[in-house]
Specification:
single chain, about 220 residues, 2 domains, nine-stranded mixed beta sheet
């Protein structure tokens, strides 16, 4: 039996239960008007209690057995290439988001390899206000929020600009930007689950002049 068929059978059962409980309570109430109804007056409180208990049990069983979970969004910070001394622009993207009204990110990076320059908000996030706390080198705290949510299959929220250390050790092949903390909210102030794909900068080393021009 498919999940849809199960839910349809559950709906039929719920309607039947509602009818039984409502009729039972109504007939209990009618004992005040005459003895022709078979549920006694003394059964009224018990009937109401049983109806409430049944509805409570049914409600929690539906919630537990058929939970409704929000589709997870995905935060993506790609890997880009950069040489020592380069200024590299790294987009911060979110995929499969239906309603993003607020986001908090805590990012870490290697301060010996990168120097943070600035953050530029993207057009897709123009309705959101943003604040970036960069007081601690190697750590960024980014907060974006707005009164109305934004949505899309792939949205660029902002671009982070870093300078690659010109004196970077040659043994370093890449440097990562790590998402330490993330919180995404919709415009109903409900948290949206979000997966993470972190990236950073792959370091490009200058080639010798001969190789650069195709010489052997």
């Amino acid at each position: 039996m498919s999940p849809t068929q199960k839910l349809e059978k559950l709906a039929v059962f719920v309607r039947s239960l509602i009818k039984i409980c409502v009729n039972g309570v109504f007939m209990s109430y009618q004992t005040y008007r005459g003895p022709q109804y078979f549920i006694s007056q003394s059964a009224l409180p018990g009937t109401v209690f049983k109806a409430a208990a049944i509805f409570s049990a049914l409600f929690f069983s539906v919630i537990l057995l058929h939970p409704v979970t929000a589709r997870a969004a995905k935060l993506v910070i790609p890997y880009l290439s950069g040489a020592s001394g380069d200024e590299v622009e790294i987009p911060v993207k979110v995929q499969q988001i239906d309603n993003l009204a607020g986001i908090k990110l805590v990012l870490s990076y290697d301060k010996s390899a990168l120097t943070y320059v600035k953050a530029v908000k993207a057009e897709a996030a123009s309705s959101l206000m943003h604040v970036v706390n960069d007081k601690q080198p190697g750590r960024l705290i980014i907060v974006m929020a707005g009164a109305r949510g934004i949505k899309g299959k792939e949205l660029t929220l902002m671009t982070l600009v870093f300078t690659v250390n010109p004196d970077l050790d040659e043994s370093i092949k890449k440097t990562k930007i790590t998402v330490k903390e993330i919180q995404v909210m919709d415009d109903r102030l409900k948290e949206v689950p979000c997966e993470i794909k972190s990236g950073g900068i792959s370091i490009v080393r200058p080639q010798k002049a001969g190789k650069l021009h195709g010489d052997k």
